[in-house]
Amino acid sequence: MTKNNANLLQGLNIYLVGMMGVGKTSVGKAVAEQLSYRFLDTDDLITKIQGQPITEIFSQQGETYFRELETKVLEELSTYTRSVIATGGGIILKPENWSFLQQGLVVWLNAGVDLLMERLAQDESRPLLQTANPRETLERLLEERYSQYAQADLQINIHADESPSAIASRMIQEIPTVVKSQNSAS
Ligand SMILES: Nc1ncnc2c1ncn2[C@@H]1O[C@H](COP(=O)(O)OP(=O)(O)OP(=O)(O)O)[C@@H](O)[C@H]1O
Ligand SMILES: O=C(O)C1=C[C@@H](O)[C@@H](O)[C@H](O)C1
Ligand SMILES: [Mg+2]
User: Which spans of this chain does the record mark as coiled coil (predicted)?
Assistant: First the structure.
C-alpha cells in the first residue's frame, strides 16, 4: 500500500502546512520514512543557512527578513523531488509561496488550540508566542490563517494520543483520493 502510494505520487513533493506545534516536523519525518522520501524542514534549513536560531532572527533582523529567507528556501526546495517538506507555520501567508507549494501536494495538519497549547507549553523557540497571553495569540493566528490553510489539497485532523507514525499512515492512505482528483481535474 505504502509503496503504491509512493508510486502514485510519481516523485511529487509533499508540503506539510499548519500551525506551530501541530506536528509538521514530527509527522513529516514519519511520512518520509514510510514513503522512502527525503525529509526537509524549512525552519531547520533557515536556522542552518543563517547560523542563528529562529528566535534570534526574529529579534535581531525581524520577521520580514525571516519571511524573505523562508521564501528563498522554499523556492530552492521546489526544485527537489521525492521530498516531504515540513514548513514553518506562517508559510501560507505570502501568495508568492503558494506558487511553490502548489507544485507538490499540500497537506494541512489541523488541530485545536487546546492541543497546540499542550504541545507548546514548555517551548520558548516560537518567537510569535512570546506574548503575555500565548493562548489568545494562537487563537488569533489560527483564525487569521484558517482560510489559507484550507487551500491545502488534503486536510488531516490531529487529535491527542495518536503517534506521528500512525498519523503518517493515515495521511498516506488518503493520498490516492487527492492525487486522483488532481489528475481528473487536469
Ligand atoms: N503525534 C504526536 N504525539 C505526541 N507529541 C507530538 C506529536 N506530534 C508532535 N508532538 C510534539 O509536539 C511538539 C511540536 O511538534 P513539532 O515540532 O513536530 O511541530 P511543528 O508543527 O513542526 O511546529 P513548528 O511550526 O513550530 O515547526 C514537539 O515537542 C513534538 O515532540
Ligand atoms: O507560525 C509562524 O509564523 C511560525 C512558525 C514556526 O514554524 C517558525 O517558522 C516561526 O517561529 C514562525
Ligand atoms: Mg517544525
Answer: none
* Among the four given CATH numbers 3.40.190.10, 3.40.605.10, 3.40.50.300, 3.40.50.2000, the one describing domain 2-178: 3.40.50.300
What's the residue count for the chain? 186
DSSP conformation letters of 115-167: HHHHHHTT----GGG-SS-HHHHHHHHHHHHHHHHTTSSEEEE--TT--HHHH
| Residues whose Cβ atom is located within 5 A of ion ligand 3 | 24-25
Q: Is 152 in the pocket of ligand 1 (CB under 6 A)?
A: no
Quick: pLDDT tens for 82-91: 999 999 999 9
Instruction: Please check whether residue 3 is in contact with residue 87, taking contact to mean a CB–CB distance below 8 angstroms.
Output: no
**Atom nearest to 158 CA in ligand 1:** 1
Residue of 64, 128, 139 with the most ligand 2 atoms within 8 Å of its CB, for mutation: 128
Domain range summary for the chain, segments of one domain joined by +: 2-178
Q: Is 82 annotated as a binding residue?
A: no
pLDDT tens-digit series, residues 107-136 = 999 999 999 999 987 777 888 888 888 899
User: Is position 89 annotated in a ligand binding site?
Assistant: yes
